[in-house]
User: What shape does this take?
Amino acid sequence: MTPLFAIAYRSTAARELEAADIDRLLHDARSFNAKYDVTGVLLQHGSRFFQYLEGDSTGVRAAYLRIEASSMHTNIVKLVESPIADREIAAWHMGFCEAPA
Assistant: This one.
């Protein structure tokens, strides 16, 4: 079994995002993550984001490289990058929650 790995980061939207932008982002992320068996969750509060990704290190790092290259957000700050014992969010290729105002 391949060791599991996790990355968590926070960022700020580069511009005001509409619901359709978020829908496209989630669709794209879920497709990519399913292909590479990456699971995780994206939390949004206004223009701020927090995301947690987990899976094998190759898939998680590939997902994070896509995130760093995205023009949808700026000020990306990696908070966690480490091996993990077990998945915390095994059921979601990309869960999403928008925090209430």
In short: The chain has one domain: 4-98. The chain has a mean pLDDT of 92. The longest strand covers residues 73-84. The two ends are 42 Å apart (CA to CA).
